Amino acid sequence: MNIPGEIQQFCSEQFGTLISFQAASGGCINNGGKLTTSSEAVFIKWNSATRYPKMFSKEKLGLELLHKAEGLTIPEVRAVYEGELYSCIVMEFIESAIKAPAYWEQLGHGLAAVHSTSSTKYGLDHDNYMGSLEQYNDTCTDWLDFFIRSRLGPQIKLARDHNRMGKEPVQLFERLYTRLPDLLVTEPPALIHGDLWSGNIMTDSQGMPALIDPAVSFANREMDVAMTQLFGRLPAEFYEVYNNACPMAPGWQERLDIYNLYPLLVHVNLFGGGYLSQTMHIVRRFV
Ligand code: ADP
C-alpha cells in the first residue's frame, strides 16, 4: 500500500484493518485516493507535515463551514492527523453517480445558499491555503482593501520574491489598484468556497453536486462565480438559477476577469511563468 507508514498506522487505529488503496487522479497538490478499511471506505489525502503546517486542519474547518451552509453535499471529515513527517485528512468517500437532470439547478441553488452565509467583515478568523499557498484572511471591513492587501498583494510579492514577475507587471498592477473603485462593486461579505474550478465540483451518489477542496473566506461572491469560468464555463442553466436565487449586480460578467486575477496569480506561483501573460493580458485591458 503506497501510503506512508505513520499514516497507515493512524488509519488502522481509527478505522480497523486497511484492505486496499486506490490512488485518485486529478489532485494538483496532495497524494490521495480511496482507502478501503474494515469499517468503511474513505477518501484520504496526505502531504508533508512540515512544508504545509496545519494544511488539513484548515481544510477541515473550511469543509465544516461549507457544510453548515446546508446548500450542497460536502464530504464529512472523519479525522485529521498531524505527525512529525506527514499529515493527512480522512473524509467521507464520495461515490460518484451519473449527473441527475437537476444537477446544475441544484448547484445554482446550493451555491446561492452557501453565499447567503454572511459575516460582518471580509476575511476569516484564521489563515488557510489556496492550493499549497498560504491564503491570508486578516479581517477587514473594506472590500477593495481586502482584495488588494490579502489577495492580489501577497501573490504579487511571492511572484516578485521568486523572480517570476518583473517590475513592469508590478507597476501595472499598481495602476489597476487605482482603477478598482470604478471597476468593482462592493457587496456584504459572503462565505465563498474560494477555489471553485470545475475539478472541485464533484457528483455525489445521488447524481447531485458536491464541493471539495475549499479555500474558504468571507469575500465578494463574484470571486466564486468567476472561478467557475476560469477554465471554461459551466452550463448556462447554472448561472441562470444562481442569478435568480441571488441576483448579481449589473455588469457582473465584466468583473469576472478581474477576480480571476487572484487564482491566475496563484497559478503563476504554483505552476510557473506561462500564466503570467494571461494574467497581464487581463490587467492591460483595465488600466
Ligand atoms: P488536491 O488537494 O491535491 O488538489 P483534491 O482534494 O482536489 O486534491 O482531490 C483530488 C481528486 O480526488 C479529486 O479530483 C477527486 O477526483 C478525488 N476526491 C477528492 N475528494 C474526494 C472524496 N471525498 N471522495 C471521493 N473522491 C474524492
What this model shows, in words?
- The protein is α+β, with helices and mostly antiparallel strands.
- The protein folds into two domains: 5-92, Phosphorylase Kinase, domain 1 (2-Layer Sandwich), CATH 3.30.200; 103-286, Aminoglycoside phosphotransferase (APH), C-terminal lobe (Aminoglycoside 3'-phosphotransferase, Chain: A, domain 2, Alpha-Beta Complex), CATH 3.90.1200.10.
- It has ten helices and eleven strands.
- The strands form four sheets. Strands 1-2-3-5-4 form a five-stranded antiparallel beta sheet.
- Helix 4 runs antiparallel to helix 5 (167-183).
- The longest helix has 19 residues, at 143-161.
- It is globular.
- The structure holds adenosine-5'-diphosphate.
- The site of adenosine-5'-diphosphate has 18 residues, from strand 3 and strand 5.
- Adenosine-5'-diphosphate binds at residues 24, 26-30, 32, 43, 45, 75, 91-94, 199-200, 212-213.
